[in-house]
Write a structure and sequence with these properties.
Helix content is 46%, strand content 17%. Strands 1-2-3-4-5 form a 5-stranded parallel beta sheet. Helix 3 links the parallel strand 3 and strand 4. Helix 4 packs across helix 5.
Length: 136
């Protein structure tokens, strides 16, 4: 099925808009080895140690494990980080204001609304949010 999906992604020329994610590392490794131009993400419940050896572009961590230090460590290992599954507005806001590279959520429309509100903040509101995130 991965081969068929990659074919559709290429036919539609949406390689830059798609990330194929899975809990099955063997599937992600297969896609990376056969289609290195396709972005992939391996979903983990938590991450320990050096994940740079994992053959993927993104790591997906559950929101409880997606701490600032985990995000920084993932970036230090030349990978991007997706957070799953922040479904509440406040949690979405938290991760949209963080250095996470994306969200995996059941509430996509709500996340888009939160992101739009964040983009409309004044400089003062941005500073308050930054301070609150650092304190909290």
């Amino acid at each position: 099925m991965a081969d068929d999906l990659v074919k559709v992604i290429r036919e539609q020329d949406v390689q830059e808009e798609c990330i194929l994610i899975s809990l099955d590392y063997n599937l992600i490794d297969y896609i990376e080895k056969n289609y290195p131009d396709i972005h992939t993400g391996f979903l983990l419940f938590t991450a320990f140690g050096d994940s740079s050896r994992l053959n993927c572009d993104y790591l997906g961590l559950e929101e409880e494990s997606a701490t600032e230090s985990a995000i920084d460590a993932t970036h230090d290992q030349n990978k991007k980080l997706l957070v799953w599954t922040p479904n509440e507005k406040e949690t979405q806001k938290h991760f949209l204001c963080s250095d996470a590279d994306g969200l995996i959520t059941d509430n996509v429309k709500q996340a888009a609304e939160v992101e739009e509100l964040l983009e409309q903040r004044s400089d003062l509101q941005r500073m308050v949010d930054w301070i609150m995130a650092a304190v909290g």
